[in-house]
Amino acid sequence: MRYSTGRTNCGTLVPANPRERAMTRQMKVAAAQLGPVARTESREQVVKRLLELMREAKGWGVDVVVYPELALTTFFPRWLIDVEEELDEWFEADMPNAATQPLFEEARNLGIGFHLGYAEIAYEGNIKRRFNTAIIVDKKGDIVGRFRKVHIPGHHEVLERPGQHLEKRYFDVGDMGFPVYRAFGAICGMAICNDRRWPETWRVMGLQGVEMVFCGYNTPVGLGDSFDLDALSPFHNLLCFQAGCYQNATWAVGVAKAGCEEGFNMIGQSCIVAPSGEVVAMCSTVEDELIVHGCNMELSRDYKRDIFNFAYHRRPEHYGLIVERTGAEPPPA
Ligand code: CDT
User: How far, in Å, is the centroid of ligand 1 from the Cα of 152?
Assistant: First the structure.
């Protein structure tokens, strides 16, 4: 585990004067990166790993520990799963459930919050929906926020290559937009993996005053496709977090499921990013690893008051195309 004191250009995070310190809103966050999860690993085995990281975080006085996207299982969309009952096995119909209950109980016992990504089955009447979901759980062990991934990546059809990314086949598009929630003394939002690549994700939360974004990811490095931009994956990961945070004056915690999972490499680089766009802490392995940072929430207020004072500077009368048009339409030649 690495502990960051936050001494960077992103502001004096811990004022020397104790009175000033008392007046400063602080949220201590941990990114709980996971190394690979094997196909055969049970939910109970994974929850044991999550509990270990949670206890370590508590030892550092953390308010909220952030786990990755689809944290309870291996990244199953890399395989074609044709049989509905088999597919169901990768999803949770209830949360909490028997396997995850210990996580909720330990959060309540320790007085620590968490963020967890998982595959969710939800019924709308008789219609079965499948979402790539994340939740925020408060220090009492209650779910206080939910988000369903909007930008579903990959493909629907099976491709002629060793690895697949069949999220479009297995997940519905999230039906909640990008809500924010008051938790841990701040305004918190969520994004899931590919969502972080889209400026709209960040701006919709920015327009609700978001101060802290939790975002888990499973980002592969090469799926056997010859058209391969993945060598730049780590660069693009940080680029998205840093730009999203700066342009919306928010903190973010990005958390990977990392390492070589079932023969496919995924990036690590779990990170905590300040509203200045600076990375204040980053994992150095592709294994289970915790990083911690005490975030000064006033820092996002400073950026929101000045350079990114939306009410003062934004010009929505010029942004119509963003919601009117989906794909790019170049002008006639
Ligand atoms: N899980 C996820 O959203 N992964 C995407 C990569 C998709 S590659 C087809 C990501 O944005 O990292």
Answer: 8
Percent of the chain predicted with pLDDT > 90: 87
Cβ(333)–Cβ(42) below 8 Å: no
Domains of the chain and any CATH numbers: 2-6+23-298 (3.60.110.10)
Contacts of 253 (CB under 8 A, 6+ apart): 29, 30, 31, 66, 115, 212, 213, 214, 215, 271, 272, 273
Q: Indicate whether 290 pLDDT > 60.
A: yes
- Alpha carbon distance 286, 274 (integer Å): 22
| C-alpha neighbours within 13 Å on the C-beta side of residue 217 | 33
**Ligand 1 binding residues, C-beta < 6 A:** 69, 153-154, 165, 193-194, 197, 217-220
Which residue, chain included where needed, has tokens 């690979």?
A: 36
How confident is residue 224, by pLDDT bands cut at 50, 70 and 90? low
- Side chain identity, residue 38: A
Cα–ligand 1 centroid distance for 111 (angstroms): 33
